[in-house]
C-alpha cells in the first residue's frame, strides 16, 4: 500500500466512513468527524505510520489536506 | 381586602372576575412582603422584578418552595410569631419553617373550614382520625400532619384517634366509634398512605366487621408512597368500600407553605381551586405557562399568606390543569390533576459522592 | 485467607488475585509491560462500537495510547531509577464514570498493582472499560492479571480496613465526606494517603482577545468544560471573570453563542430549573445586588456587582454561572483560595496569571489551561506530580 492509500484508509477506519467521502474532508463537516472521531482518526494515523504526533499538530489537523501537509512537513511522510 | 373573599361563594367566580379579584390582592401582598421581608426584597431584586404591579396572574413573581427550608422568610417581627409550622420532613431533610402570627393562623383555619364545609356540609360532625394522638400532643413536633389534624379540630364535634401511639390499630376505639356514630353522617380523616396501610390492611387482616357507609373520608397527600405499591385512586376507593363500606371520598392537595388553601376533590375526581387561590402550571425549560393539559411545575397562588411571603410559590410537584370553569360538578375555577413530586436530580457533585452511595 | 473479602464483587480480577497481590512484583516507571497493556486497551476501546457512544471513554482511550504515554514518559528523565511502591488502593468517585480507569492508569504506569473500589452506580462506560481489561488480561497479557482488581462492595468498614492494611498507597477520589469516611480506616506507617477532595474552578476571559477569535469554536470548548459533565466536575468553571475594554460586547456574543449550542445539545433534568432559582434566592439573601440573567433555565447567569470571596459557597451546576467584571487581573487573588483548582482562560493571560500566583504566594490554583481543556486528563493533577509521587526513586551518591 502506498502512503496515500494508507492515509485514506485511516480516515475510512478511524471515522468509519466511505472512501469516496475522504478527499477534501474538513473537521466538523460530517457527523463522524467530531471531537470524538478526531481522536480515533489521530490514533489510527499514529498506529498506521508509527509516529507520535505533537499536541499542536493534533489540534491543527483540521482537514484532509491540512493533515497531509502536517504529516509530510513534520513527520517526513512522503505522499 | 381578604374580607371581600369571605363574602363570595367559594367556586362562584368566572375566570375574568376571579383574576381581577385575585390579582389586586396578590399585587398588594407582593408589595407588602417586599417592604416587610428583606430576604424577599433581595430576591425580587435579583430576579429583576422591579415593577410595583403585575398586569396578569402569570406575571406575579414566585419563590421556589425550598426557600422556606433555606431562609427565615417572615414578614412579621419576631415577637408576633404565634406559631412556626414545619413541613413534614421525611428522612433527615431540613424542614420548611412557616412563620404565622395569630391573625394569619386564624385566617388559614377559617378558609380551610369553609372549603371543607363546601364538600361535607358546615355542620360539625364526629371525626375519626387515622393517626395517633401523639401526632398532635407533642407541640414541638408540630408538623403538617399534626397541623392539618389540628386545623380540622373546629370542624369536628368530637375527635377519636384510630391508632395507638405505636401506629397499631386501636380496635376498641374503632368499634366504639362505629357503634356510636356510624348511623349518621360522620368524618374520617387520614393521610392516604396511612389509611391504606393502618386502616384498610388491618381491618382486612383482623377480619373486622365495620360499617362506615355514612362516613366521608378526607384524605391528604401520600399518593407517592401508594404509587410505589401501584395503588391508584380508583383501587383505593374500591378497597375502602370493600373492607368497611366507605362511599364518600374527598382527596385534597395542599401544603404547609400554603395551609388553608386546599384543592379538594369533587364528585368527578377533580381537584378544584377556590376563589382564594389559583394554580399556574409552568414549563421546566423557561417557566413559561403551560397550555391546559400540558404537564409542568405547579405554581400555587394564595391570598392567605400575610405573615410570610408565600403567596406565590413554585412547587416541585408536577401537575396538569385539566380545565377551567367547566367541570361537570358545576364549580367554577381551574381544576387540576397532581402527578407527584418531580424526580430528584441525583447528587452528582464532587462532594457527597461517597456518603450517599457507599 | 481473609473472611471479609467474601463480600466483594469483582469486575476485574478475583479473590485469589486480591489475596496474592502482596506478592506481585513492582514495575519500573512507565514500564514496557504497562505501556503495552494500556496501548492494547486503547486500541480495543477505539475500535469498540459501544465505546464510540461515549466521548469520555474515547478521550481516555486516546490518552492511554502508546504515543501519548511515551511522550509523557520522556519528561521523566530519571525514570530508569524509579519503581512502583506496591499496591495502590483506590476509591473512585461516583460522579465521573471513567475516573476509576484514569486512577488505575496513574498507579499502573508508576509501577504499582491496583485495587480499585468503584461505586454501585451503574455506568455503561465502566462496563465497557472493564470488559476491555478483562479480555486483554485473558487473551493477550495474562501476566498483567495480578496487577488489577476492580471491585464493588457495600459500605463496610472491615473491608475498607483490610484493603487499607494491604496497600502502600491509598487514593481517595470524592468529596470531603468520602475522604473523612474512608480515613476512619488507618493506614500503615509508610503508606502514602492521597485525598482528591472537592474543588472549584473558574474561567477568566479577556474580552478584547476573545472578540478576535472564533466564537463558535470557543463556545463548544466552554460547553465541553461545563455542560458535558453537568458542570459537576471539580475542573468545571462556575465563575466567569471578564477583563478588558469591550466586555459588554464580548459577554453578549459569548453567552448567545453558548446558549445556541446548549439549547440544541443539552438535556437538563427538570428539577434543575427550580434548583437554580433556589440558589439565586439563597445567594441574594447573603449578597443583595446580584442579578439573574437568563433566556431560559438551561443557561442561568448571576451577575455579581463585585467579587465576593465566599461566592463559591453558593455554586450551582447544570448551567449556573456567576460572572463578574474586573479592572485588574490582581483583583481575582481573593478567590484563588486553597480550594480553587483550575483556571481556564481565553486570551493572552496565562503568563500574567502565573506571575500573579507566584508573586503573591497564592495557595490555590493547581492548573491553568486554555478553555476547552478543563476536563483533559493529565498526569499532574491537583498539584500532584503523580508519576513521581506514586513511585520511589532508588537514590545514589
Descriptive account of the structure:
The complex is a heterotrimer of chains A (79), B (358) and C (397). Chain A has 79 residues and is mostly helical. Chain A is built from 5 helices and no strands. In chain A, 27% of the residues are buried. Chain B is an alpha/beta fold and 358 residues long. Helix content of chain B is 34%, strand content 23%. In chain B, the strands form 2 sheets. In chain B, strands 1, 4, 5, 6, 7, 8, 9, 10, 11, 12, 13 and 14 form a 12-stranded mixed sheet that branches. In chain B, a hairpin with a 5-residue loop joins strand 9 and strand 10 (271-272). In chain B, helix 2 packs across helix 3. Chain B is globular. Residues 345-358 of chain B have low confidence and may be disordered. In chain C, helix 11 (215-225) crosses helix 12 (247-265). Chain C has helices at 15-20, 32-47, 49-52, 55-63, 66-74, 99-109, 124-139, 157-166, 176-182, 207-211, 215-225, 247-265, 271-286, 350-360, 386-389, and strands at residues 9-12, 82-84, 87-91, 113-117, 148-152, 169-173, 192-196, 200-206, 237-243, 291-294, 300-303, 320-325, 340-346, 367-370, 380-381, 384-385, 391-393. The radius of gyration of chain C is 22 Å and the shape is globular. Chain C starts with 8 loop residues before the first strand and ends with a strand. In chain C, the strands form 4 sheets. Chain C has a 7-stranded mixed sheet with strand order 10-11-12-9-8-13-14. In chain C, strands 1-5-4-3-6-7 form a 6-stranded mixed sheet, with helices on both faces. Classes of the chains: A mainly alpha (79), B alpha/beta (358), C alpha/beta (397). The B-C interface holds B 39, 42-43, 45-48, 63-67, 70-71, 284-287, 297, 314, 316, 342-345, 348-355, 357-358 and C 91, 93-95, 119-121, 154-155, 174-178, 181-182, 197-199, 230, 232-234, 268-275, 277-278, 280-285, 288-292, 295-298, 302, 317-318.
Structural class of chain A: mainly alpha
Q: Which residues of chain C sit in consecutive blocks of at least 5 with pLDDT less than 50?
A: none
Strand count of chain A: 0
- Quote the distance from N terminus to C terminus of chain C: 42 Å
Query: Mean pLDDT score of chain C, rounded?
Result: 94
Radius of gyration of chain C: 22 Å
> Which percent bin holds the helix content of chain C?
25-40%
Mean model confidence by pLDDT of chain A: 89
Q: Name the overall outline of chain A.
A: globular
Q: By helix and strand content of chain C, what is the structural category?
A: alpha/beta
Biggest sheet of chain A, in brief?
none
Distance between the termini of chain A: 12 Å
